[in-house]
Amino acid sequence: MASLLELIGHTPMVELKKLNSNPNIKIYAKLEGNNPGGSVKDRAAFNMIASALDRGDIRPGDKMVEATSGNTGIALAMIARFYNLDLELVMPDTSTRERTLTMEAFGARVTLLTGMETCRDYAEEKAAKGEAFILNQFANPDNWGAHYKTTAPEIWADTAGSITHFVSAMGTTGTIMGCSRYLKEQNPNVQIIGCQPTEEASIPGIRRWPEAYLPKIFEPQRVDRVMDITEQEAIDYTRRLAREEGVFAGMSTGGAAAAAFRIASELEQGTIVFIACDRGDRYLSSSLFG
């Protein structure tokens, strides 16, 4: 019988057959909501904590602080319990109540502040004062390393190496950085597409960072194309995924799906894989499915 942490990864991929009518193009969603913590962030959270423990950066009983928009915080809160780590999570006060309650259910303390940039500043300042250890997912190579070691190899194996386009929302950029490294090593012709919100859009889980806050792990040359996604596009595809394909996911997944189908409209043939980042039940108190 596997332990909970051993269940992280090995998520299924589902082919979208109702939304896609072109038989020469395959579009797959990798269902990261099937991770035990409910999102793709389980992978990075586990790798960051396990690697920090292995290096001796942290020890059981230590205090940690991390800024998060939600999914990383939930994953960290779940995994921190296994290692007896005292965790404070700092999150924007616009986050859905489900996220805060889930983090607290795992035993984390949650601090709500205005804006993600403010949350990041708070966590980094607290760590700089020596009050807690920060993993800093935005600058931690163990973030993208999780996807290099697990996510991308799974995608390559499940498509039998036929993938032509990989699509991911960009937040911390860990998923796209790790997957780009691995997939390009297997086939340099695989196209890596990142999604960011348009200037006026607010899409939970996808960010358009000010230059000063651009994640340090992000290497723009590893992304072949960046697509701007409108808020309405993300909402529409999130709802269509649920109603037409039975894929119940959050708004960042809708954004990635919008990009995947935009790419499909430009191709004669190909195999497109996009990341379905989390589960839709984390957004039920919002208007997303209303």
UniProtKB/TrEMBL annotation:
All copies of the Tryptophan synthase beta chain-like PALP domain together span 6-278
Kindly indicate where the leader peptide sits in this chain.
none
Record key words, sorted: Amino-acid biosynthesis, Cysteine biosynthesis, Pyridoxal phosphate, Transferase
**Amino-acid biosynthesis: is it a keyword of this entry?**
yes
Keyword Amino-acid biosynthesis among record annotations: yes
Pathway involvement of the protein, from the record: Amino-acid biosynthesis; L-cysteine biosynthesis; L-cysteine from L-serine: step 2/2
Which is one Pfam family of this protein? PALP
Q: Which CDD domains match?
A: CBS_like
Q: Write down the chemical reaction(s) this protein catalyses.
A: O-acetyl-L-serine + hydrogen sulfide = L-cysteine + acetate
The Enzyme Commission number assigned here is 2.5.1.47
GO MF annotation terms: cysteine synthase activity
Kindly list the cofactors needed.
Answer: pyridoxal 5'-phosphate
Gene3D superfamilies per UniProt: 3.40.50.1100
Q: Which PANTHER family match?
A: CYSTATHIONINE BETA-SYNTHASE (PTHR10314)
Q: Which family does it belong to?
A: Belongs to the cysteine synthase/cystathionine beta-synthase family.
Q: What is this protein called?
A: Cysteine synthase
Protein source organism: Niabella pedocola
Lineage start? Bacteria, Pseudomonadati, Bacteroidota, Chitinophagia, Chitinophagales
